[in-house]
Amino acid sequence: MNARTQLTEKILLAKRSLGLTWKDLAAALGSQSVVFYTAALLGQHPLNKEEAEKAATLLELDDVDALVLAESPERGVGAVMPPTDPLLYRFYELVQNMGPTWKQLIQEEFGDGIMSAIDFNMSIEREPNPAGDRVRITMSGKFLPYKRY
What we know:
149 residues, alpha+beta, 434 Repressor (Amino-terminal Domain), 2 domains, two-stranded antiparallel sheet, 6 helices, globular
């Protein structure tokens, strides 16, 4: 287990033992979304120095942990493909089954290119429904056309 993975485990344990939610942490850290701050605390984005220091204080981490939270991460390290967690696997299944459809529809609308996962926003909401609440995920990524050269 690498140092960043150990820090993630430490963060999850502190969050649990302190009775904090991701929304609590996001509200205390700054103006970014709960999705961004959750991903950052799980090791997928860097926090700025001020946010990292706030996170360290809130989660009772040490100064070295705060420095690590502000470093550029190695994204996706340790990811198992396909994922074995049932919830994560469903996203993989969505991409497997719907990916070609998304690709066709995006490229028909925008042209030959990709949707950025760097210049990107996402929100996750509960959608009340009499048949059982639904998960609404909204993703918005900048379209980046392929260049001819």
